[in-house]
Specification:
Two copies of one chain form a homodimer.
Chain A: H1 5-19, H2 25-31, H3 37-62, H4 68-82, H5 90-100, H6 105-110, H7 116-131, H8 134-140, H9 147-161, H10 171-194, H11 198-226, H12 245-248
Helix pairs in contact in A: 1-11, 3-4, 3-5, 3-7, 3-11, 5-10, 7-11, 8-11, 9-10
Chain lengths: ~250, ~250
């Protein structure tokens, strides 16, 4: 017998409790004020690659959806990141954060210096959404269920611990607190409706596990490269590169 | 003007000198006898995922080659790994190594416990070969130019430092010393012949850089997970799992 909708939702939430990247030691460092300016910069540079790939992931999803209603419902995700006439969008907000931590936004947008491991993980997510079932693609997006808490912790921790933090530099996170709940409420309902067999529930749970791996791996790579004993791999950002002129001076 | 064949070959060889994973600290540990049994096991488990993906990569390549001669020339790579009536093949040899270090070969072959970051990197390579030009796909294989030295160092280092090392457990590396040179001589000639513009040389060089990133990232993930201060990510192999019965007893 297929487990109930409630039991399945509890299973998905447990995956977040066990594996979401709020448990990663890099976030403890970052939110607690333990990061050096260069560690914050490395995080901003690498996390940009994720942000910049998300609308491509959402377009890949929409390219496979035949139902205009579902596409229309999904489209706001791309607008939230890429912007509209009245909303600068999450990617520009992220570049504002980059500037606030002393990085040249053009350097960050070039994605040079992004760790290869970050690219492999993020690209795996885009391809997952391009290749797997629609159910798995939507289920993978459900890490947003766990995002509001980490965004609140991050805003509070950054404001308390870092001079660069203010309403402008942290507007990305403030906006995600508004945007993510509507997306995830829809996504969760859709997954609960469509995972109507044990096999589909298992596939959806595995997709969510995969996505937690995508997030965790990015922080693992960042931690290994930039936290002592730091080992920056060939091609990774070297502190001092890509700074705003006023910083380099 | 397009740089000469010799200058282009020197450029490719320099990429190896700068970025090949023989320079990674995990290999220094491994070859110098500094790895614990569990660190060797973690390496065997994760590296298996690479070995098991290589014939899929080669099949992806052949699926895009229209010239029967080139496909015939390439086919021996799959035979070398998957085996023939008279050759057990590299994958079985790798599982013999797994057994020699106390791992259940069925556990290793299941690829459970492989680090997510290993999967992301290796899968990126398979997809690279599936999606990029044939020139880039062949150029990415040229890390084999740099492999004989690391295989010789590894055989010598493992024999000297670890009880499990003998002709049987190390036969994978002994065989690669015989197999790789014929492959790479062909691959290098093919790339030098076909990269006949600056743009193609640049693309081939970038493909080789990409491949060095694939190899380096695997060791970075292994080092971060299993060398102190070790941080095994969710889903990664935990020491004690997947042992042969005689070891667990």
């Amino acid at each position: 017998m297929t487990p109930s909708r409630d039991a399945f939702e509890a299973r998905l939430r447990q995956i977040g409790a066990d594996r979401y990247h709020d448990r990663h030691p890099f976030h403890t460092l970052l939110h607690g004020g333990g990061c050096t300016p260069d560690q914050v910069r490395a995080w901003v540079i690498n996390r940009y690659y994720y942000q910049h790939s998300i609308p491509m992931k959402d377009a890949a999803f929409m390219s496979r959806v035949e139902d205009p209603g579902l596409r229309r419902r999904w489209r706001s995700r791309i607008e939230d990141h890429d912007g509209t006439d009245t909303n600068e969008g999450g990617i520009r907000r992220w570049l504002r954060l980059a500037e606030a931590v002393g990085l040249d936004p053009d350097y960050v947008a070039s994605t040079r210096g992004v760790l290869p491991a970050t690219k492999f993980a993020v690209d795996a997510y885009v391809r997952f959404v391009r290749e797997k079932t629609l159910l798995e693609a939507v289920a993978a997006s459900l890490t947003e269920l766990f995002a509001p808490k980490i965004h609140k912790d991050r805003i509070a921790g950054l404001l308390q611990n870092y001079d660069f933090a203010d309403d402008s530099s942290l507007s990305y996170f403030q906006n995600r607190l508004k945007e993510a709940p509507k997306d995830v409420a829809f996504g969760l309902g859709w997954v609960l409706d469509h995972a109507d067999t044990q096999e589909k529930q298992d596939a959806a749970a595995a997709a969510l596990v995969f996505k937690t791996d995508v997030l965790w791996s990015q922080l693992d790579a960042l931690h290994a490269a930039y936290v002592e004993p730091a080992r920056i791999p060939p091609g990774g950002w070297q502190p001092g590169e890509g700074l705003l002129n006023r910083q380099a001076a």
